[in-house]
Write a structure and sequence with these properties.
single chain, alpha/beta, five-stranded mixed sheet, two-stranded antiparallel sheet, 6 helices, globular
Length: 196
């Protein structure tokens, strides 16, 4: 019985590994013609999917894209509704991914430079929390929150199929960029364009 539940997870991890760590240039955005129909209607893509699901930290409506909760790599509860009202960078990474390690410094710099104007949140997957905590410590990225997404729930919500991906949401929760940015190059400019 245990093998039946473990096999799909192993196959999914193998698939992600084969397509992972920077396959593609990451230049695709949510508005590109190559966007699949299912992506176009996902909660993170549709500006019409903003619901009054409660109020974010600034009393603004929470878009459906941010209507989820998780646990940080440190075991603390995290409510994404608190991100509402500001541009948000979701950085999907895995502890063993060299491309992700290469993005760490640029991502941490954006988090520091945009503190108070934009949110940066790491979403770790494809490993256990201990490895995730070690990655955060080793890369010096502890200045912003990282979610422990061992079950892949947040990854599935945003339809992420490979690590080292970014999803950038504007202040309304609409996805304005999705893809890989090797070394984090271009992340600062994309976020600065949203914060002015």
């Amino acid at each position: 019985m245990h093998a039946r539940t473990l096999l799909p997870a192993v196959l999914a991890a193998a698939l992600l590994t084969l397509t992972a760590c920077g396959s593609g240039d990451g230049s695709a955005s949510a508005d590109d013609a190559g966007t699949s129909p299912s992506k176009a209607s996902s909660p993170a893509q549709s500006p019409a999917s903003s619901h009054d699901s409660g109020s974010g930290s600034q009393g603004v409506k929470v878009p459906e894209a941010l209507n989820f909760s998780a646990t940080t790599v440190d075991g603390k509860p995290f409510d994404a509704k608190t991100l509402a009202g500001k541009p948000t960078v979701l950085w999907f990474w895995a502890p063993w991914c060299p491309t992700c390690k290469g993005q760490a410094a640029a991502t941490a710099k954006v988090a520091a430079d945009q503190q108070g104007k934009a949110n940066v949140v790491g979403v770790a997957g494809l490993d256990k929390s201990a490895a995730m905590r070690a990655f955060v410590s080793d890369t010096g990225t502890s200045s912003f929150p990282h979610l422990s997404d061992e079950k892949g729930e947040v990854w599935k919500r945003f339809e992420i199929t490979q690590q080292s991906s970014y999803v950038i949401l504007d202040q309304t929760g609409k996805t304005v960029y999705e893809g890989v940015l090797p070394g984090g190059k271009g992340l600062a400019d994309k976020v600065a364009a949203l914060t002015g």
